[in-house]
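Subject: sequence -> structure tokens, single chain

Hey, anyone have a minute? Need the predicted structure for the following. Not urgent.
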Amino acid sequence: MNKRLAGKVALITGGAQGLGRACATAMANEGCRVVIADIDMAKAEEAVQQIHAAGSEAIAVKTDVSDPEQAIRLAGAAMDRFGKIDILFNNAALVSRGAISRVPFYELSLAEWNRVIAVNLTGSFLCCRAVFPYMRAQGGGKIINVASGQFFQPVATYAHYIASKGGIVGLTRALAKEMGEFHINVNCVVPGGLIAEQVASEEELRSRQNAASRRAIKRIENADDVVGTIMFLASGDSDFITGQTLVIDGGAVMH
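Reply:
Had a minute. Here:
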């Protein structure tokens, strides 16, 4: 049986856990060689070992995506090891309550605003810029960015995060226009609020279940619900799709 991503190379930021790790595992299972970029090298190496144990190839590269030089080194490390980059999955972000504050915008410090924009939005831009020369030279590639359902259904006290993820939608459309002539597809996925490893409290689970009750599909979303769409966008099945934002949230947002 042919594997969908046989011979491909994927670079996944924030690939050590959550959605990034689920996608790294799924892509490896479909014949892809994987570069896992993350600031948490212990978890990144753990993910690599899991992929190796399943008989696939992967490397871990410690990366702060908000640093231009580190983004360039990440792309270079992928090229040095595997000789090409077919897929970029821009998944790294500051999102959890422990990582960013939930305060009214007028109490939000400029330092935190800049930090969230730097990682969530600028980081995706920098990684796109870093891989572009290689994708252009090889005649194409797939870039998949990650926005958030908060952009479509905003809540209070989250201005920096919502702005960063709204920027991802705009960046996706702009880059799709610029990269199309080089056969590079740029699309965006919008999960509806995933349960990840860092979400453990009963309060949080109740909040997620309450939100799920208002969807068409009334259950909590997990990473596996999103992986299939990302695999589609990474594969040849989506070669004529670009500049699109696909919402994967069980029907909370319909547009």
